[in-house]
Specification:
Blueprint (H helix, E strand, L loop, with lengths): L11 E3 L5 E3 L3 H20 L5 H21 L22 H15 L8 E2 L5 H26 L4 H24 L6 E2 L5
Helix pairs in contact: 1-2, 1-4, 3-5, 4-5
């Protein structure tokens, strides 16, 4: 299989179903940002995290591929002529969302109470986690804008929202386990 097709040389690309759109289309921007997030999650997986976190990060990457496929599908062509879904893959489920919530609840039992915002940083792994969180928030913002134009599965937006929360708690957990300094943001008095 050749990687290059030359079909996008003039600035357009195909969605699942064959519809061609400009490469700057909001749909392309949304799943491109999810792809960028997936790469950051891969970078996090390469950090000193425990095996259960590594496994969850792999599952998150799988879910992000599913989300990318949902976002890359033209809503007018999401059903085949026989009535079946074009995407023959498991959708993002409530159980996927609950898995993130459960992981956050478990981590929070080991963390000190948060009384202030914290400055991103303290250790390279923590910083990578905060970058992933920010990219996740951007993916959520762009996907929400797309959803307003052409709705798709609701759980996609819920998952992205919960994933950014998970990444924040994971950053705090990494700070804790790596004994990195967690600097609170305390606004200066004017």
């Amino acid at each position: 299989m050749k990687i290059y097709t030359k079909t996008g040389d003039k600035g357009s690309t195909s969605l699942f179903g064959g519809t061609r759109v400009p490469k700057h289309h909001i749909r392309i921007e949304s799943y491109g940002t999810v792809d960028e997030l997936n790469s950051h999650i891969g970078l996090l997986r390469d950090q000193p995290v425990n095996d259960s976190t590594k496994q969850l990060l792999i599952e998150i990457q799988d879910r992000l591929f599913t989300i990318g496929a949902v976002l890359a599908t033209d809503p007018e062509k999401e059903k085949l002529k026989n009535g079946k879904d074009r995407l023959n893959i498991p959708k993002v489920s409530d159980a996927d969302i609950e898995k993130l919530e459960h992981a956050m609840d478990e981590m929070n039992t080991e963390l000190p109470e948060m009384t202030h915002f914290v400055l991103p940083g303290g250790h390279q792994s923590v910083s990578f986690c905060h970058i992933a969180r920010c990219v996740c928030r951007r993916a959520e913002r762009i996907s929400t804008a797309l959803y307003d134009i052409e709705p798709f599965q609701d759980q996609v937006l819920v998952y992205l929202n919960r994933l950014s929360d998970y990444l924040f708690v994971l950053a705090r957990m990494l700070s804790h386990s790596l004994q990195a300094e967690e600097i609170q943001w305390i606004p200066k008095k004017s």
